[in-house]
Specification:
The protein is mainly alpha-helical and about 90 residues long. It is about 60% helix and about 10% strand.
């Protein structure tokens, strides 16, 4: 099992050191992906993965809030044709 330091080799302004244990095959995979992706290090690649995962989670949470608001607003009396016609008017297509 290999060790990967994530995000920083030592404390750097606003960053802390983290050690991640990976099986050898994942270490090789991460190393290769870091090179292929043009990252400066495997640590930078792992940081990017975590950052993107956080962004995805935030987007998913915002989507869930919108879905919940839509469900809470109740059923509409408008037909699909009414909604499409209104949208076309707003877009200057009707």
């Amino acid at each position: 099992m290999a060790l990967v330091g994530v995000c920083a080799a030592a404390y750097i302004s606003g960053m802390v050191q983290m050690t991640v244990l990976l099986p050898d095959d994942l270490q090789r995979w991460a190393d290769a992906r870091a090179v292929e992706g043009g990252f400066g290090s495997t640590s930078d690649y792992i940081c990017d993965l975590v950052r993107r995962d956080r962004e995805d989670a935030e987007k998913l949470a915002a989507l869930q809030v919108a879905i919940d608001a839509g469900l809470a607003s109740g059923a509409s009396e408008r037909t699909i044709q009414d909604i499409i016609a209104d949208r076309r008017k707003r877009n200057g297509l009707a």
